[in-house]
Structures are given as C-alpha cells and as structure tokens.
Design brief:
With about 260 residues, the protein is of the alpha+beta class. It folds into two domains: about 90 residues; about 120 residues, Glucose Permease (Domain IIA). The chain contains three helices and twelve strands, in the order αββαβαβββββββββ. Strands 3, 4, 6, 7, 8, 9, 11 and 12 form an eight-stranded antiparallel sheet that branches. It has a two-stranded antiparallel sheet with strand order 1-2. It has a two-stranded antiparallel ribbon with strand order 5-10. A hairpin with a 6-residue loop joins β6 and β7. The radius of gyration is 58 Å and the shape is rod-shaped. The termini are far apart.
Length: about 260
C-alpha cells in the first residue's frame, strides 16, 4: 500500500461555479507538470516584459536626457545670439551716426566747392572804374572821323555787360576757377575769353589786347587772361547763369 502512494501523481482541480441557482458547475483537472509549464511560461513572459520595459524606459530616459541637454545648449546659444544681436545693433547705430556725419561733411564740402566756383571775384587785378554809357551822340556832340574808325569795346546791353577801365599794367583776371571754353583773337576785332565754371556759370571777358591763356586750359581764380596796355584799357565783362545773363554788380564781391 505504501508503494501505491509513492507512485500516485498529484493533480489539482479547478471548480468553476456560477451565482445562478440553475447553473451547473464544471471541474477542470490540471496536472502538476502542466501547471509548472504554465507557470514557467508566465514567469518568462513577465521577465521578458520587465526586460522590455527596462530597455524601453532606459531609451526614453536617455532620449529625454539628450533632449534636455539640447534644450540647455539651445538656450545658451540663444543667449549668445541675443547678446551678439544687441552688440550688432549698437555697432549699426554707431555706423549710421558716423555715416550721417560723413554725409553732412560731404554736403558741406560740396557746398563749399560750388560756392568757390561761383564768379564773385573782381575781374581786374587792380583798381578800375566802370565806364558809363557813351552819351556824346545823345547830347548832340559829333565824333571825329578818327574816333568813328577807332575800335572800341562797347557794352552789349543784352548781355548786361559792364565795361571796366583800368590803368596800364593791370591784368584782366578770372573771377572764379573753371575751364577756358573759348578763346578768340582776330585782327580788327575785339578779342575775348570765355570760361565755363562748371556749375551753370559762364563768364566772358572782352578786350582789345591778346589773350594770354589757351582754349581748354584749367584756370584758377585770379589767373591773368589779358594784360592791360596803352591801347587796351577797356574790358567788357558779362556773366551767364544757365544761359541767362545776370547783372555782374549783383555777383561781384568788392572787399576793402
């Protein structure tokens, strides 16, 4: 009898019941081996799930750490860029201020340059008188034959021209810097020099002498154009602004 007890296999019974009075109940017999297999499978599944969860959580934690590191790095870069932006804004403001000052200086230089090229100078190197209109004929006077044939520098009223009378040795001079646009010297005619000052102003100097400048040459204010001698004491002077004649007396600055 003891031998039979050692050989008997242990089984487990699972009884399934219902709360309903009319329901039957069922019995399920599970052997020890099957239960061990099921338990092992469940254990392995739990271990696998735990390992999977650990790996997944580890990756999540690692990714989260990397993201936090990137966020910190981006914040630092943003702060650096903000500081650089503020620095650049200050430099731009300084450059704009410097540029504005330079533009003002350039405008002042241009204005001074243009002012220097306006013909405000006196057309003679020394003292000279403005010749009044010849009223001999209007007063009933008569000119001699010699005076009638004498070549003169007569004022052109349409040009608002002035006639300056100066002593021998005086020079006819340019009233502002410019370029000699035209020179004419012909026997029996009044010679002239025309200077273009490059800003709309053009001056004309007429004299009975010989011009001492060449066409196309650059001249400065005060350079000699004619040398006044015994026979060419009179000089005609006129000014044009944008092809309109202006009164030289409104332009000439007499100093002293």
């Amino acid at each position: 009898m003891s031998t039979d007890l050692r050989k008997r296999k242990i089984t487990y019974t699972i009884i399934l019941t219902s709360d309903s009075p009319a329901a039957n109940y069922r019995r399920m017999h599970i052997k020890t081996g099957a239960l061990a297999v099921v338990s092992f499978v469940v254990f392995v599944a739990v271990i696998c799930y735990a390992v999977y969860t650990t790996i997944t959580m580890g990756g999540y934690i690692e990714r989260n750490a990397r993201q936090l590191e990137q966020i910190v790095q981006m914040k630092a870069e943003n702060e650096t860029l903000t500081a650089e932006k503020e620095s650049l804004a200050g430099k731009i403001s300084s450059l704009e201020e410097t540029l504005s000052r330079k533009e003002e200086q350039e405008h002042e230089l241009v204005a001074a340059h243009e002012e220097n090229y306006i013909p405000r100078g006196f057309p003679m190197s020394g003292a000279a008188q403005i010749k009044e209109e010849d009223t001999t004929a209007d007063n009933g006077g008569e000119e001699t034959e010699e005076e009638e044939n004498e070549l003169k520098v007569e004022a052109n009223k349409d040009w608002k021209e002035l006639i300056f009378v100066a002593a021998e040795g005086t020079k006819v001079v340019a009233t502002a810097p410019g370029t000699v646009k035209e020179v004419r010297e012909a026997e029996g005619e009044v010679s002239y020099v025309i200077i273009d000052h490059g800003n709309g102003y053009v001056t004309t100097y007429r004299n009975l002498g010989s011009p001492i400048v060449e066409e196309g040459s650059q001249v400065v204010k005060g350079v000699a154009l004619f040398l006044v001698g015994e026979d060419n004491t009179e000089t005609g002077y006129s000014i044009r602004k944008d092809d309109e004649y202006v009164d030289p007396l409104e332009m000439i600055e007499i100093k002293g």
